[in-house]
Design a protein that fits this description.
This protein has 299 residues and is α+β, with helices and mostly antiparallel strands. It has helices at 4-12, 23-26, 35-48, 51-54, 64-71, 109-113, 126-137, 292-295; strands spanning 102-105, 163-167, 171-176, 183-187, 204-210, 213-219, 239-248, 251-259, 268-272, 275-276. It is 20% helix and 20% strand. It has a ten-stranded mixed β-sheet, with no helix packed on it.
């Protein structure tokens, strides 16, 4: 029977009991007082193995998609496959539009953690800048995403978990691995925004095609979510436009345009470059064993 430490490590690789949830923890920015506990855990594992177990011959290497699944949500770096993403032309649907369907990884951790620090010009009004500075000064201790609340749009595109696009003629469904296993429905049938969609976590999304680019407009979100981990705020009147294109088989380009006169002096934008995920989405339950909150003490 494995001890508690063994259970936590063994299950953590598959998204069951991951100990630390936020991008700060996933990318190695752990507080010093947390490191002894981690070392103790791995020490206990090392000494609990029998001599026979320690001298077993090396196992065959695992497929890369399994490696990606095991290291997703940890500090480990997966082995890169030089032949991935695959090359090829943009796939198209029967009506001639690019087919966006597939599993995608965001490749946008810098924008997720610190939009301004990544080089994006964010024209915050004085009141919004004061809120942002306070959140930075307190080390983002009140970040809603660290409490397993949905990140909102556009942060859903930068949170470091993959998603699936499922595209039909009149609907694009987006299923997210992270952000508490949530989804979006983008209506492509020409309907207007639903006026009853107000103060929601992911808003109301409608889309249309402009040539080979899908233009998605989202309104009706609440003002609780942050645009990034550093704490860029927004109001409940924010409109987010995503311009999604698929230049080839293995890549997407998503330009995000943020328009919120209550928070910013003018519309601004940033662009991400997702790539095809090698593998499938895995189960990730943020609310299970979430250890972030006890370490988010600020300063």
């Amino acid at each position: 029977m494995p001890n508690r430490c063994e259970k936590k490590v063994a299950r953590g690789g598959r998204g069951k009991l991951r100990t630390y949830r936020s991008p700060l923890a996933r990318y190695g920015m752990l507080k010093p007082d947390m490191k002894p506990a981690i070392l103790l855990c791995f020490s206990a594992l090392a000494f609990s193995q029998s001599p026979a177990a320690q001298t077993k011959p090396a196992q065959p290497s695992e497929p890369q998609d399994l490696q990606l699944s095991k290291v997703r949500g940890t500090n480990a770096a997966p082995v890169q496959d030089p032949k991935w993403p695959p090359a090829g032309p943009t796939p198209r649907t029967a009506d001639g539009h690019p087919d966006l369907s597939g599993n995608w990884q965001p490749n946008a951790i810098q924008q997720n953690v610190d939009m301004v620090g990544s080089g994006v010009d964010v024209p915050m009004l004085p009141a919004a800048r004061a809120i942002w500075q306070h959140r930075r000064d307190t080390l983002s201790k009140d970040d809603p995403e660290a409490r397993c609340l949905p990140p909102g749009v556009p942060r859903m595109s930068t949170t470091p978990y993959p998603w699936s696009f499922i595209q039909t003629k009149d609907l694009l469904v987006i299923v997210y691995e992270g952000g508490a296993h949530i989804w979006r429905k983008v209506f492509l049938d020409g309907r207007p925004h639903n006026p009853q969609a107000v103060e929601t976590w992911l808003g109301d999304s409608i889309g249309h095609w402009e040539g080979d680019t899908l233009v998605v407009e989202t309104v009706g979100q609440n003002a609780i979510t942050w645009i990034d981990e550093s704490g860029i705020p927004h109001s409940d009147e924010m409109k987010v436009t995503e311009r999604i294109s698929r230049p080839d088989l293995g890549h997407l380009t998503i330009e995000h345009i943020i328009d919120d006169p209550k928070t910013f002096s003018k519309p601004w934008s940033f662009t991400t470059h997702p790539s095809m995920l090698k593998g499938e989405l895995i189960e990730y339950i943020c609310q299970e064993n979430n250890r972030d909150v006890e370490h988010l003490v600020g300063k």
